[in-house]
Amino acid sequence: MENKNSKFSTLNSQLNIISIIPARMGSSRFPGKPMKEISGMPMIGHVYKRVKMSKTLNEVYVATCDQIIYDYIESIGGKAVMTSDCHERCSDRCAEAMLKIENETGIKCDIMVMVQGDEPLTFPEMIDEAVEPMLKDKSILITNLVADIDTLEAFENPNEVKVVMDKELNALYFSREPIPSRKKGVLEVPMKKQVCVIPFTRDFLLEYNQMEPTPLEIIESVDMMRILENGEKVKMVPTKYITKCVDTNEDLEQVEEMMKKDILISKYIN
């Protein structure tokens, strides 16, 4: 039987695949959250260390407009890129950072994997899950991990970005509202959430960055809506990993508790 990891390695061995982790201190929902400590380490440190474990990636960078984040990442031996403080969307920050990285290294990126800086339970295997469909099908310009929502409380939480999909697992719509509706007498509906591991092909990221912000993107405050409103597809990829995005102090406390049973933390924190 052919080894899956060997096959995957062959697919991506000729490509320059990098990850960029956007992070800023001025979050409207939870100011200063990248530097909030979890198990003795700032949250952005957990994200960086865990993404860095991915064997799919050639390199990992943090993109930020805040000197405190830049200095911290450098202090742990990581790579950081200073960006403008005017970006409204994480993907715009990543586009600026990618061009700066290419200019500094002289090497073009083939795929840029955006991993949100508030996903401290990211597993390196999630990078593989998200990137693999793009390696197998060159027509796919962007993918996005998707996971089940287990509780009605989470389904109704505006900090969780919900998604509905077509039969081919292409996104139809993203919303901070609970979609699809449960108000028509249907109690059992597919409750799915966006997980912010999002690979773009290089050229599509730059194309996206040239698009004007769109009405539904602004209303929903979801980057991916700009893509859907311009008639492009976002391929959703189911993940088996259980993660939690940090948007509030309560989320931080929950992640701290989850970290006590985490299998990766001992590999990068003393």
Largest beta sheet: strand ordering: 5-4-1-6-11
Helix-strand string: HEEEHEHEHEHEHEEEEHHHEH
Number of strands: 12
> Could you tell me how far the N terminus lies from the C terminus, measured between alpha carbons in angstroms?
39 Å
Distinct helical segment count: 10
Helix content estimate: 25-40%
Descriptors for this entry?
globular, 270 residues, single chain, 3-stranded mixed beta sheet, 20% strand, alpha/beta, 12 strands, 10 helices, 5-stranded mixed beta sheet
How would you characterize the overall build of this protein?
By secondary structure, this protein is α/β, with parallel strands linked by helices. It has 10 helices and 12 strands. A 5-stranded mixed β-sheet has the order 5-4-1-6-11, with helices on both faces. The chain has a 3-stranded mixed β-sheet with strand order 10-7-12, with helices on one face. Strands 2-3 form a two-stranded antiparallel sheet. The longest helix is centred in the middle third of the chain and has 16 residues, at 90-105. It is globular. The N and C termini lie far apart (39 Å). The model has no long low-confidence stretch (mean pLDDT 91).
Short description:
34% of the residues lie in helices and 20% in strands.
Topology:
Blueprint: H1 4-12, E1 17-23, E2 37-38, E3 41-42, H2 43-52, E4 59-64, H3 67-75, E5 80-82, H4 90-105, E6 111-115, H5 124-136, E7 143-148, H6 152-155, E8 162-165, E9 171-175, E10 192-195, E11 197-201, H7 202-210, H8 215-220, H9 224-229, E12 235-238, H10 249-259
Parallel strand pairs: 1-4, 1-6, 4-5, 7-12
Antiparallel strand pairs: 2-3, 6-11, 7-10, 8-9
